[in-house]
Amino acid sequence: MPLTRVQVVDSHTEGEPTRVVISGAPDLAREAGGQRPSVAAQAAVMRTRFDWFRAAVCNEPRGSDALVGALIVPPSLPNAVCGVIFFNNVGLLNACGHGTIGLAATLRHLRRINTGTHVVETPVGPVSVDLDPHGGISIENVPSFRHASGVDVSFDCLGTPHRVRGDVAWGGNWFFLAEGHGQDLSLDNLDQLRACCLAIRAAIDRAGIRGDPSFGRGEIDHIELFGPPSRADCDSRNYVLCPGGAYDRSPCGTGTSAKMACLFADGKLREGQDWRQESIIASRFVGSVRRRGDHLIPTIRGGAWITSESTLVLDDADPFVHGIR
User: Fold this and answer.
1) Active site residue 196
2) Which of 321, 315, 318 is nearest to 4 (CA)?
3) Which is the catalytic residue, given 96, 157, 234, 262?
4) Residues of the chain under the 70 pLDDT cut
5) pTM of the full predicted structure?
């Protein structure tokens, strides 16, 4: 029976796993046509024609709900070291902050990049990656902004009516961000947090609340709750519900970008001031923002560690060759 072998390198960024596909994927650039198709064009081809590959890499039995895949593709930008398409257990992601840090760690592990600044092309624009001589990694994300503030959402969670007020913001993905939610942000409360955030996301969808459709099609698919930190070296703790129903083990790079955009809009964060974001598992990102013309550019710093190198085997005789969906 035909076998397809897919080479991958796994890592985690502050606890959140990333699986970088090195080889064995469909040739999206060829399928997209043209001399140098954009990463966005290649992502559109993957979404419509090769979703089976996403599912095979990320879903059980080879993956898990928490796993984020990162497919290296040819860039269209002449200054980019590569393009990347991120995906998870249910579909493609517009961008991924922790995944970009994990990608940088993987490229360094493979000796494809060295200390210095490098550009990576994502479907929503270029992201700069900086590797310092001591192993630290920071990313300069796509421009981020608050789209709406003081958005009221009414929802039922486990049979109890709730109401929460929050912001809608873009950080490479669309987020609804809220404090004052009445939830305990702890690992002991994961089931309640997941149920609450799923109910918020469903209520947002029913109410027709969306972001700007020119950015990632406008769907608000991430919910981010904030509360007091447990670490003395952090400013806030968060719980982030990802599109496929898993929670982000890291503080979420695109979510931290969105949070800082809201803080900046409220005058609570200055240019160059550090924002120290703790995750639900007590890992940490350190972020800051700067102005570039009319845009607000976030920078996120965090650590990533290689966990495995392996070859996935896709066997056509396997009833779950394309994953358990």
Assistant:
1) no
2) 315
3) 96
4) 1
5) 0.97
